[in-house]
Write a structure and sequence with these properties.
The chain is of the alpha/beta class. Helices cover 45% and strands 12% of the residues. Helix 3 links the parallel strand 4 and strand 5. The chain folds into 2 domains: 169 residues, Rossmann fold; 54 residues, Helix Hairpins. It has 7 helices and 8 strands. Helix 2 crosses helix 7, helix 3 packs parallel to helix 7 and helix 4 packs across helix 5. The strands form 2 sheets. Strands 5-4-6-7-8 form a 5-stranded parallel sheet, sandwiched between helices. It has a 3-stranded antiparallel sheet with strand order 1-3-2.
Length: 279
């Protein structure tokens, strides 16, 4: 259960689409209206699609599956980095390296080399090498950091990907589609929502809009992880309760898992509002 309402989406500017000259006809069904040459996204549809995405993400997290967070554009990179780190998921925030998914075996070998360099730097052995060689290794490490930051501990391909601006990250989307990896994406009116599995129609240029959507997905991941851990805790507690019940001859009441999401009121109407592109 999401803890946001339509009004939260409205206040974050999720309904601001692109100018009509950038309009992708395949996004037409998600457009509420066009005002002053600007597409206005239907927030009721955005809310419904976001809810579908959170349910999918929560189920993956509950089953101990990895979701790769991707957002390399200026407005998204820090938000993606913070959210993925907080929910312990891999991420790509600096740049998408072509072949990250389709050529994962080679990427994995390069990450192993990067880990070796990091170990050399940590134990001081890098400082003992020739200065010219050490300088070359450090330059390569800087390049590797940009390429592998966030995915260095990713031992296998992810079960799904969450992408901000699927048009900007079209190479990542293409690789995921080729490998049949489900994609959840924030898609604006200039993008094609039909090429991904869980499109979330919304403004992908505003930091405020991006942050709201990313935080909802992050909370869904955290709920899934909590749901994965709660049954284990209940199983460990159940034998103790049964023993106490035998001694006291009292019935055992099953332990119900708690949820961190509170029911929130919903707004049934989308106010008439529009804006211009920020880029």
């Amino acid at each position: 259960m999401m803890n946001i309402t339509l009004r939260d989406l409205l206040e974050a500017g999720v309904h601001f689409g692109h100018q009509l000259r950038r309009f992708n006809p395949k996004s037409k069904k998600y457009v509420f209206d066009n005002r002053h040459g600007i597409s206005v996204i239907d927030l009721e549809l955005s809310y419904g699609k976001l809810e579908e995405a959170t349910q999918f993400v929560e189920e993956l997290a509950k089953n101990n599956q990895k979701i790769l967070f991707v957002g390399t554009k200026r407005q998204a990179k820090e938000i993606i980095r913070e959210a993925a780190t907080q929910c312990q998921m891999p991420y790509c925030a600096s740049r998408w390296l072509g072949g990250t998914l389709t050529n994962f075996a080679t990427i994995k070998n390069s990450m192993t080399k990067y880990k070796k360099y990091l170990a050399m730097e940590a134990d001081g052995s890098l400082d003992k090498t020739h200065k010219k060689e050490a300088a070359a290794i450090r330059r390569e490490m800087n390049r590797m950091h940009r390429n592998f930051e966030g995915i260095i501990e990713m031992s296998d391909r992810p079960a799904a990907m969450f992408i901000i601006d699927t048009k900007h990250e079209q190479i990542a989307v293409a690789e995921a589609n080729r490998l049949e990896i489900p994609v959840i994406g924030l898609v604006d009116t200039n993008s094609d929502p039909t090429i991904i599995d869980y499109p979330i129609p919304g403004n992908d240029d505003s930091s405020k809009s991006i942050r709201l959507i990313v935080e909802v997905i992050m909370e869904a991941v955290q709920d899934g992880i909590a749901g994965r851990q709660a049954p284990q805790a209940n199983q460990g507690l159940a034998p103790m309760l049964r023993e106490e019940a035998k001694e006291e001859q009292l019935p055992v009441t099953p332990i119900a898992p708690m949820t961190s999401m509170a029911n929130a009121p919903q707004v049934s109407e989308v106010p008439e509002s529009y804006s211009t592109d920020q880029d």
